[in-house]
């Protein structure tokens, strides 16, 4: 078995079983891709792909497990390179963080700024993606760290570290009557047009769930996935909104004001998703500690080791 064969196989799967797209992504020919996968099947003695005429339509039962194992092997192979770089180029490198717009725009901004000054030779890359994709990026080895408020259910090779709590506030245009309530209720909020996070995001789902549980139907006039967009429409007096407190800055958001609503919604934490199999260089531990000071290198290593 060769790493090239496993890479070709995973690329075919990721291309929706389109050999033409896979060959283009791999900078090789279609026959070359097919030949390598056939060779892998022959060596393993089992069919990996389901074929219908000249088309590939999926993976066999065994193929599904083989693809998963191949992905792990490819991640492990990358780690060998990282270990070598740690000892040949201690300063230089690359750190990839997968996260949503909210975290990239607000809490990560000062951390990345400080990190880049401390590790000037490390290239930072932000992968902005929906919450449901973040863990997959970490599992595939495409990201070193995932920053998310997503689900607690993780792949076996991943761990989640609580980084910082998320508080919520109700924002409205300055002078809006809802701001007179020091502890607004869901009924108080539902009296006015509401702008919400898309319910596919945990921030939107938790707010919608609270209204559903109380049997209250809010007047949702707009849903969005971007805190800056939500604030802009609140400032434009289209409605009010429930937002993470970290996205509101009274020094900048001068057209709107906020009141705390933590009492209305369940508490949550931002989490750092790490892959146990991925080798972590010293600067990665530094980044984690800068973002979540409670997590020292020793503590992170203990969790990764199963402690």
Descriptive account of the structure:
The protein is an alpha/beta fold and 307 residues long. It has helices at residues 3-14, 19-26, 30-44, 61-88, 101-105, 108-118, 131-139, 186-190, 202-214, 227-235, 282-291, 297-304, and strands at residues 49-52, 55-59, 93-99, 122-128, 145-148, 158-166, 168-173, 194-197, 220-224, 240-244, 256-260, 268-275. Strand 1 and strand 2 form a beta hairpin. The radius of gyration is 23 Å and the shape is globular. The two termini are 34 Å apart. The mean pLDDT is 89.
Features:
alpha/beta, 307 residues, 12 helices, globular
Gist?
With 307 residues, the chain is α/β, with parallel strands linked by helices. 43% of the residues lie in helices and 22% in strands.
